[in-house]
Amino acid sequence: MSAGTEPPSTRQPQAPLVMIVGDSFTVGSGPVRGWDGYAARVARELGWQLITAGAAGTGFVNPGRVGRTFRDSFVKELSWRPEPDMLIISGGRNDRRIEAVRIESAAVHLVELVRRRWPHTRIVLVGPIWMTKAPRWAYGVREAVALAADRQEVPFLDPFEPLGPHGRGWGRGAVLPDGVHPTLVGHVRLSRWMVSTLHKHGIDPRSPRGT
């Protein structure tokens, strides 16, 4: 090597920082821990640094047994951290018997709060997840979250979409005996769906917000 030249850099590009807030489907439930859940699997597949927040039984409006909504989880667990490249807000299943307009309003206000705290962070909303056929009321929750995403001009990922018009679920072996939560197989299928959907819509945490 000639004098005055430097060896080529071997330093790898920094992995994008992604945070996600959600319910038990996101943080882990039953025999499936968070590190084996769909969010962690997506992060490993796409090379993200991931920080997970939230708690079982919570929603946009429903505080659950832990006494905090998605907004509260964001404030307590995430908002004080350095600005990430992307934040995913995933859920709504626990907002049962709550008016759709309240769910939509809570989701809108949460996105607004995130933008005030982190103006450059890419935000993605994910609707409620059902491993089996979703009840009629669940479609109202999904529409509320979708409307909030539309109002705030952020991407909306719809977990009902792969279920088809009859909403028959994620296939054999995807749900635990409780009839609610995903098995390890279910989380694998959810992660594949999310990776595919992110690619389909060109959602990349490295992209500037709004692109």
From TrEMBL:
- Which Gene Ontology terms cover its molecular function? hydrolase activity
Q: Which residues form the SGNH hydrolase-type esterase domain?
A: 21-187
Organism per entry: Streptosporangium oxazolinicum
Please give the Pfam families that the UniProt record associates with this protein.
Lipase_GDSL_2
The highest taxon in the source lineage is Bacteria
- Which intervals of the chain form a coiled coil? none
Protein name listed in UniProt: SGNH/GDSL hydrolase family protein
For this UniProt record, the keywords arranged alphabetically read as follows: Hydrolase
Does this UniProt record's set of keywords contain Phosphoprotein? Answer: no
